[in-house]
Amino acid sequence: MALLWQQFLASFSFESYFPLLAEVGVILTLITALAAWNYIKEYKFWYYILTLIYLISTVVVILTTDWFFFLFAWEMVTLTTTFLLAWSSWKLVKQYFVIQFTGSSILLFAALAANALGYTEIAAIDSVLLQFVLIIGMATKSGIFIFHFWLPPIHSEAPSPVSAILSGWVVKLGYIFLLKIIPIESGNTMLYLLGIAMVVYGGWQAVRSADLKIMLAYSTVSQLGFIALAIGTGGELAFLGAVLFIIAHGFAKTTLFITSGILQREYGSRVVYDFKGAIFKRPLTSLAVIISFLSLAGLVFSAGYNAKYLISSAQLPGLLTKVVFFGFALISAIYSLRILYWIFIVDEDYSNFADKLKKALNSYQIYSTDILAILFGTLGVLIVAFWPEMPGDMLEYLVDYDFNIIAGVRDSIIYILLAVYLIHNNAGFKVKVRDHLSLERYLRSALDFIFSMSRKNVKFDTDKIFETVFYNTIFNTSKKIHDFFYQDLTIQLLWIPVFLSILLLWQQIYSYF
Amino acid sequence: MMETRIILLIIVPLGTAFIIPFIDLINAKLRRFFVLLGISIQIFNLTSIVVQYFDQIRDGSLFLQYHLGGWQPPFGINLVMDNLSFLFIAIVTLSLLFIIIYSIGYVGHHEGKFYVLYFIIIAASNGAMLTGDLFNMYVFIELLTIASGALIAFQRSHPGSEAAIKYLFYNIIAGSLIFFGVLLTYFNLGTLTMADVANNFAALESGIQLFITAIFLTALLIKMGVFPFLFWLPKSYDSSPAPVTAVLSGVLSKIYLYLFIRLIWTVIGFETIVALNLNILLIDIALFSSFLGHVFALQANNIKRLLGYSSIGHIGMIFAVIMLNTEAGFYGGILHIIAHMFMKAGLFVACGYLLQYTVSNHYRDFKGVGLRDKPVFIAFIILLLSMIGMPPLLGFASKWFILMAFLEAQSYFGAFIVIFGSLTAVIYYLRYIAKGFEEVRLSEDDLKMEVFNQPLLSVLYREKIVTFITYAYTAVIIIFGFGFRFLNIPLRMSIESIMNVERYIELVLGG
Amino acid sequence: MRNNFIFIILFMLGLYALIMKTNLIKNVIGLNIMEASIFFWVIAFSDVGGEVAIHKMGEEFSKFNDPVPQALTLTGIVIGASTAALLLTLIIELNQFTDTIDRDEIEGLNN
Amino acid sequence: MHKYLKKTLVISVFILTAIALYENFLLVPEYTGLRTGVSDYIISSGLSDTGSLNLITAVLYDYRAFDSLGESTVIFGAVSGIVLILSRKMLPVSSRGLSFIVKRTFGLVTPFIALFSLYVITHGHLSPGGGFQGGVILAVISIIFSIVYGSAFDYRRYSPQVKTAMETMGAFTFLGLGVVGILMEGFFLKNLGFLTARTGTLISAGSIPYVNFGVGIKVGAGLAIIFYSMIQKTFKEDF
């Protein structure tokens, strides 16, 4: 027993930026735990027990270098988050579990292959094929492009604190793992391309949706794209950028999901247009939203700006890079600024503003833990924004780094102007209010899309296709195999003399072949 | 070392079985007292053996013998307890204790007969695992067959008697083949003691070796339910009452695995199997059997049958990994034997509880089962997750070691089967979990009808005991899932006693 | 050698009745023939031309047949009889439900 | 599958199996003589070891007495199972039996059958016979009773409870003698030496006659129970 414990402790590695990431993970979990106090009504005890197990497991996932403990802890993360989803609906649990389990089995296989190929510890892996398999497994678990399809429906339907955990930290574990296994010198081209696709696709979907939580979920996809892109680029600067991005986005997304929970509760709606004048009614909440969204948008003096700047400066210099990154930043800016736009609109009568403020403040008293959580989150965002080198020695490289504030201010003004213009006209986006996003509908629309490419004007019963693909084929095939072997008792018993004679004549048979 | 307590492990349950009909004649209320007395003497006995020989169990030198009637081994029957049989007896006794407590809550009618047969199973399983004599092993195997065959038909239902008939057809053939094999061995070597046979078996002509090995292998494959002979297994698991199914899958199949290890490694010798080129054939058959079990499970429309098919899958996997004859293989295999014993028995026990109000075991009747009793259903789900191989549970640890063993031996087909098993298990278990949470609206009258459709067994449930045992199984899975290294020493030591045949022979024949 | 021949024939006959016949009672008879063939073979094979291994008072030790296989066969016969009785009981029970002992008409035995 | 095709398949498989068995039997050497080993030892010193003239009985109840215990447990288990499965039935009061002549004759013969069975049971260690064989003869009395006097006669004479008690008692005799062996001689089922008188008499061979007696009662009662369970009829009103 002692052996296992020692092996467990010895497997921890406290090198480079991973302890910092683990710390951030712990802080984020604590923030969500704070926010959950009022949100979770039933079985509160179990919720916190699960959160505790989750917390320990994430630390192990980030710090361990042993494959076994890594997989073990990661499965613990999966299990605990799966159970946390049960506070909203059983359906989500089922979907999430199937997807995560599929990813796990691919990952398990990849881990065993890595073990067999001599990578006994988790470290940079040179074999491109192995990288590929690991990325596929990771993609399923962390929602890299193509496999991201489960992420928006589940993250948007989960209860807000759980969404904060999932979106804020769980999906990032995969990227932290990629930071470990992708060699820092070369990067990975596939990951780079996937990252670009994610940024564009996620951003576009976020722009199109008006539901706050769905928008946040898609923006997670988009922002994760930046991390994938950075890791795919390779180089010290890009990796540092990725780390900073993970931290910044973690704080911002956690805060935003918690605020979305608060807003949803106060306004009884999740649609962005309903939050008119929130800045006056809910100043503190709105402030947190503003700061976090500015960070997501990557405007100057924000956490996101620092990270994005590092990533973009790690790219090959040239006009194309600049244009591409400009486009990326603009997409983020549009969906981020749109909600700020609605928050600042005032169309109510504020004659007795003082009374309303008093009422609002009273409600803050009730939800004081929420406000505390938001404050901590916002504080995190601000710290990364103004003192990116502060978290410790790990990022000391950044102390001397010039973030080129002037260019930042210039770019930010351009973004804001362009974005406000586009938003104000509201043209070309076709913003949709989707109140419900489910995985089935999502897959069905994907299937529709595929079939519409091949055969025009043929309406498929997608329900049936779904059933057929996932269940009926398997069922019927196995039924056929079953019926073939189970003919009747005579044939079943006949196997006995057959087998007996095969064994008795085995020497002749063996020598014959 | 001569030790009287190991014979008590057999004759105490035997005495309990003999006394119960007599008690029934005098006062049926005393019956449970005697049942609990019998099982607690058994536990006390085993515990005292553990306490006294703790050091020897730790360093692997445990070797207890008993000469029945005082006759030296080649002339009389001897009982042997080494680390391997000790480990198996300990876990089998623990599992049987759980099931007997469960059956106190479960069995309504004909409780007396149930306990008679049940204690015969306890005595016979201990006897089969302890004996060092081939013919004595045959007698105990037949005892197991008779008792379990009668228990399968315990509910006296139509499918129950069909299942029992099918079970007996297969197992009586296997029994007579074992008889034939034992006598063939006797005619060629002039002895029945396992150690003596093991000593002289290698000197035989290879044709006769193959003859004897083929007969024993066929019989044991029938008993275990590996590929060409798997047909009796799901039927009998499906049709028997819950505690009986738990015994069948949790205990009996593991005893046959033990006997298989004993016969192949100790008596016949693995070198002989390799020399006869049988090992590759057996591994392939076992893996194919595992594959078929999982494929069959995909189409099962009946939860107990489904669990039976998945048992085929797991037993095939264990069989294959043991046949690799590596230390890692044994480690994974025996760990999975333990894990599977508790998981499957727990699942059947939970099934027995969950299906008490449903009309049948069919998939459509599984609807809403989870909502009716959530805590038990959650325990059920945890056990299912362990079957799939989710990490904090024991099923993951054992599957991991099996996977490592297959990869170490470069048997990629085996590794594929392990992963395939887990993936298909996700598909076929999730169906049932989802169905269990579907809401079903039943009026009061419907419920009454359901209850009256069942035999009276289900009305007489003592729910608390039944629930408690389900939780106990789940707790075992979770505790050993975190602390599977607790089993490290017993496992290593029993592997040593499998590998070190010379020591066994020397100690049996010398002392 | 003659013994082996007869054993194989009897064994195969018993197995044939068990596997091919659809009448469950006939199956049990086949099973018993199969067992009996093994018993027969054991006794015949262990016969080395001596006497049954029973000492007679006042007579000296003469050449005996091996007593061990005979004792084992006795055990085997009793076990075979018990299993056959259990099987027949189960067939009686099954007959109550299905009103037939024909295997083809009882669907449940096949799956 | 087509019937004839199936038949052809089965027969061809059987021919294959027969050939396989034949091939393997060719390798088995003839059992020409007794080897040095178990049987040789038993033949040479069985009489002096156990005091039983019948060496087969010596093997059954002394050298391998544990097998016999297992074997009688098999009967015990089978009886329990059969009673369990058929217990929902009731005994039909069938005929009034056969004619007066048969009844009378059988009444006269019965004590002799019982005596014969007792003889076979108790002289197991001296001549062919023993507990199982004598027990079967004992069970025959019960069976003939039901044929000759009608099914209810024996049922009333010796109720199932009595039979069960007898069976349990027989089993306990065997087990108890084994435990006495532990207590007095140190080994389970060890032959009790102090019971031995001169070889060749009824009271010889240690505990073998007593074990035989227990097994005889057990088998007799057990087979009678099996017979009565099987001739019972379904209790229609039940459930």
From TrEMBL, chain A:
Topological category with respect to the lipid bilayer: Multi-pass membrane protein
Stored Pfam families: Proton_antipo_M
GO cellular component terms, A-Z: plasma membrane
Residue intervals passing through the bilayer: 20-40, 45-63, 69-90, 97-117, 129-151, 163-184, 190-207, 214-231, 237-263, 284-303, 323-345, 366-387, 407-424, 489-509
Record keywords: Cell membrane, Membrane, Oxidoreductase, Transmembrane, Transmembrane helix
Highest taxon of source: Bacteria
One GO MF term: oxidoreductase activity
PANTHER family xrefs: HYDROGENASE-4 COMPONENT F, NADH-UBIQUINONE_PLASTOQUINONE
Predominant localisation class: membrane
Residue ranges of every copy of the NADH:quinone oxidoreductase/Mrp antiporter transmembrane domain listed in the record: 65-314
Gene Ontology terms: biological process: ATP synthesis coupled electron transport
Name of the protein: Complex I subunit 5 family protein
Organism: Halanaerobium polyolivorans
Location within or outside the cell: Cell membrane; Membrane
UniProtKB/TrEMBL annotation, chain C:
Compartments, as annotated in UniProt: Cell membrane
Sorted UniProt keywords: Cell membrane, Membrane, Transmembrane, Transmembrane helix
Primary localization: membrane
Keyword GTP-binding: no
Protein topology in the membrane: Multi-pass membrane protein
Pfam families for this protein: Oxidored_q2
GO CC annotations on file: plasma membrane
Segments passing through the bilayer: 6-24, 36-54, 74-94
Keyword Transmembrane: yes
Family: Belongs to the CPA3 antiporters (TC 2.A.63) subunit C family.
PANTHER family reported for this sequence: ANTIPORTER SUBUNIT MNHC2-RELATED
Name the UniProt record assigns to this protein: Cation:proton antiporter subunit C
Species assigned in the record: Halanaerobium polyolivorans
TrEMBL record, chain D:
Subcellular compartments: Cell membrane
Main localization, broad class: membrane
Transmembrane spans: 69-86, 106-126, 132-150, 171-189, 209-231
Membrane topology reported for the UniProt record: Multi-pass membrane protein
Pfam family, one: MnhB
Domain MrpA C-terminal/MbhE positions: 10-93
Residue span, Na+/H+ antiporter MnhB subunit-related protein domain: 101-223
Gene Ontology cellular component annotations, sorted alphabetically: plasma membrane
InterPro entries (UniProt xref): CPA3_antiporter_subunitB, MnhB, MrpA_C/MbhE
Domain of life of the source: Bacteria
Keyword list, A-Z: Cell membrane, Membrane, Transmembrane, Transmembrane helix
UniProt keyword Nucleus, yes or no: no
Family that this chain belongs to: Belongs to the CPA3 antiporters (TC 2.A.63) subunit B family.
Name of this chain's protein: Sodium:proton antiporter
Phylogenetic placement of the source organism: Bacteria, Bacillati, Bacillota, Clostridia, Halanaerobiales
